[in-house]
Amino acid sequence: MKIYNVRIMTMNEEREIIPKGWVEVGNGKIAAVKSGAPEKICAGDIDGQGKTLYPGFIDAHTHLGLSSSGVGMEGEDFNEESEPCTPHIRIVDGINPIDYSFEQARKAGVTCCLVSPGSANPVAGNIAAIKTYGKRVDKMLLATVGMKFSMGENPKLTYTDKEDAPYTRMAIAGIIREALTKAQRYGESIDKAMENDEDMPEYDMKSEALLPVLRGELKAYFHCHRADDIFTAIRIANEFELDYVLVHCTDGHIIADELEQEKADCIIGPIICDRCKPELANLTPENAGILAAHNLNVAICTDHSEVPIEYLPLSAGIAVKNGLPFEQAIESITCTAAKIAGIDNRVGAIKEGLDADMVLFGDNPLEVMSKPAMVMCGGIVVR
Description:
By secondary structure, this protein is of the alpha/beta class.
């Protein structure tokens, strides 16, 4: 299949824009990206009619498929609140890909997203990158990309009500450190046993789940809003030499100079929301633009279902209205989002060898009235 007569925003390393070109798709992958027109047009090829082709949009932080609207507890799978430290739970076991929100994502051009546990637990479980098209989550899964850690109000409020730790931010940090230290020692015991041909330590599922984080194979995603929580996340990450991402980073605009020194990756959002709790007091739609101006990698998210996932492009548009350059806004929901997540070898650009996830727009994709003329996910036209 070919998509021809299109302007192509490749979002590749050179940020190349092809004024008039075509893309060939085969076996779910991008087989070729060319300027000009193909020599031969076949039945089933798509005439883009001069519209602009973008990579499929990526929402870098969601809880997609973890709840069913109007159902209540029976359909809520955000948080495992039975204990504050649950690194061993796998997010794919909670995702319902038949939920209507996946269709809403596709209608907006969102072809991939990161799905994370909620923020009730200091150590919450792993994070998965999945496609938004499919019936079976195992086939939609790109990769397990990280481990969720949570700072601030949410763990405090969850466990104070249960008369259990953590009551304070100190206890949140303590629970995270304890889990990481225990996993560190568990890993050392395994290495020692293998080197000396000794009995292996008793299997510890929680520590086992944290070993890839300590090895740098998975990133540590820290839910953090307030400046002090952001710095605590960085402090812990540096102590354990973790590859980390700051999620929400609401006060980031206040401490952007410090974050620039740390070269911290940031996922900003939700943007379309109010100051519904104390740690959101400094919320501003200028946040993404200020952080990007400090040379940081910035992705924009909806935090679905906090903000419905179909408003991801609009969220990026609001960031443009408040100082983020247009091209960087597109990057924040395509190539930069993919880079932060470590999935840029699969998605985030229109480039030969990547998955054929693309969206076609006749006008500005970040405007409220815009709708994609076509959405392709894995080489299949889904809208």
